[in-house]
Every structure is written in structure tokens, then in C-alpha cells.
């Protein structure tokens, strides 16, 4: 009869490798940015730091000239800091070569604008499909994903309508579908409620909140709208290029 072997002592068991902590979704570390206007040096951001550790809705708030637009440009890698770092999923955005930028934005980023920025000659479906053009998908796959995303934002009944045939709120829903159809981790939104009436703005904000939770997509929203600040999980307030509060 065989004999049961005693379990190995704790000292003899191999140690499990320590798991590496996940980097923040976004880390802005000691970022400073200035511009030149003739001989004048305009400081847009000064020693700005914050991080986003979990998918959430973050509001970037502040008056005109506070540095909101400069910060969005850095997050989208349309510009780079003079000093400090902006890292998305642990990657320093300044290290991305110009040749790799389009592919990086297509994989990682979505954009929503105050003016919607839909192509007027294309239908809602075609506008959303266009965002998938850089991806290695068949035409049928692009169409299927675009329809599914438009249905998700409540626009499945308006697929064939062009932007001029849609209300402002409907156009913004199409724009949100376009931003999310590529399944980015991170969406940058610039005043997305700025051109909407109060009721429609509330509906769009509720939609953003639902998409954040169900798709685990982080939204960073530059805004003057106090309703966005109330919705947000956190608020980064800027004044004269510095974080306040």
C-alpha cells in the first residue's frame, strides 16, 4: 500500500512571483508648458500633476485661459510638455514617434467635440464606420460594429440620416458612438454639452456615465458646465495653468 506523502513545508515551496502593480490609466507628472507670443512668454501649465487609476469620468474645469485646452492637447499628443511627463497606460506620450501617432490614437483614444465634427455628406452609420477604417476589419465587420455602437447610444433608428437631418443631441450621440466604436481605453471630450439645451445635455451626461460603467472607458471632459462636475468621479480645477483646490 502506498503511503501519503506529507505536504512540503512552507520553506520548500517555490515563492510565487510578485505581481507588478498596474500603472495608472493616466499619469500627469510635473508638467509645464509655455508658448511664445512675439517676445512674450505665455505660461499655459505650471508643474501640473494628477493621475487616474481606474476607469472613471474626470472633469477638467476652469475659466478660459486656465490651461484646459493645453492640457487636452497634451493628453491627445497633439503637443508635448516642456518638462514633466504625460503617460497613458504607462507609456510616455512624448516617446511616440510621429510615424506611430495615428496608430496610437486609433487604438487608445476617442474624441468628442463641442461642434460634433461629423462629416455632413455622410450618414450617421458612415460617420461611425469611418472611424474603423484604419483597423484590419472587413467592410461587413465595420458595419456590424458601427450599427451595434449606434444602437448602444440610442441611434439605431437613425442610421441613414445625415448630420443636417439630426438634432444637436442626436449628432452628439453619433459623435460619441464614433469615439467609442474603436473600443479605446480613453476618451477626450471638449465641452461636449456646450451646444446643447439643458434637457439634452443632461441626457448626454447620463449616456456618458452609463458608457463609462458598462464599457470601462475613461472620459476626461474639459468643461464650464457645473452638471459635468457633479457627474464626474473627480474634478481637476485649473486657474492660470495651475491646479487649485
TrEMBL record:
According to the UniProt entry, the coiled-coil residues are none
Q: Which UniProt keywords apply?
A: ATP-binding, Cell membrane, Membrane, Nucleotide-binding, Transport
* Residue ranges crossing the lipid bilayer per the database entry: none
Compositionally biased intervals (Pro residues): 1-11
SMART domains referenced in this protein's UniProt entry, alphabetically = AAA (SM00382)
Q: Name one GO molecular function term.
A: ATP binding
Give a Pfam family name. ABC_tran
List, alphabetically, the InterPro entries matched.
AAA+_ATPase, ABC_transporter-like_ATP-bd, ABC_transporter-like_CS, ABC_transpr_LolD-like, MacB-like_ATP-bd, P-loop_NTPase
Q: Where is this region: Disordered?
A: 1-22
Q: Where is the ABC transporter domain?
A: 26-244
Task: Give the matching SUPFAM superfamilies.
Answer: P-loop containing nucleoside triphosphate hydrolases (SSF52540)
State the protein's name: ABC transporter ATP-binding protein
Organism encoding this protein:
Parachitinimonas caeni
Amino acid at each position: 500500500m502506498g503511503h501519503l506523502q506529507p505536504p512540503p513545508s512552507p520553506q520548500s515551496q517555490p515563492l510565487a512571483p510578485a505581481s507588478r502593480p498596474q500603472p495608472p490609466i493616466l499619469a500627469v507628472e510635473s508638467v509645464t508648458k509655455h508658448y511664445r507670443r512675439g517676445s512674450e512668454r505665455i505660461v499655459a501649465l505650471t508643474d501640473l500633476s494628477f493621475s487616474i487609476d481606474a476607469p472613471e469620468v474626470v472633469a477638467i474645469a476652469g475659466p478660459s485661459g486656465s490651461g484646459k485646452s493645453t492640457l487636452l492637447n497634451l493628453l491627445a499628443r497633439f503637443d508635448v510638455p516642456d518638462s514633466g511627463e504625460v503617460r497613458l497606460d504607462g507609456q510616455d506620450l512624448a516617446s511616440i514617434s510621429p510615424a506611430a501617432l495615428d496608430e496610437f490614437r486609433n487604438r487608445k483614444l476617442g474624441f468628442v467635440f463641442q461642434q460634433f465634427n461629423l462629416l455632413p455628406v455622410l450618414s450617421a452609420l458612415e460617420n461611425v464606420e469611418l472611424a474603423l477604417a484604419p483597423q484590419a476589419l472587413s467592410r461587413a465587420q465595420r458595419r456590424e460594429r458601427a450599427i451595434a455602437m449606434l444602437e448602444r447610444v440610442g441611434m439605431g433608428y437613425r442610421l441613414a440620416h445625415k448630420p443636417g437631418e439630426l438634432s444637436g443631441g442626436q449628432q452628439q450621440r453619433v459623435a460619441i458612438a464614433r469615439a467609442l466604436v474603436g473600443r479605446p481605453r480613453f476618451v477626450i471630450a471638449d465641452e461636449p454639452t456646450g451646444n446643447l439645451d439643458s434637457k439634452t445635455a443632461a441626457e448626454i451626461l447620463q449616456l456618458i456615465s452609463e458608457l463609462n460603467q458598462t464599457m470601462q472607458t475613461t472620459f476626461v471632459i474639459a468643461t464650464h458646465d457645473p452638471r459635468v462636475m457633479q457627474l464626474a468621479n473627480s474634478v481637476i480645477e485649473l486657474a492660470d495653468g495651475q491646479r487649485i483646490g
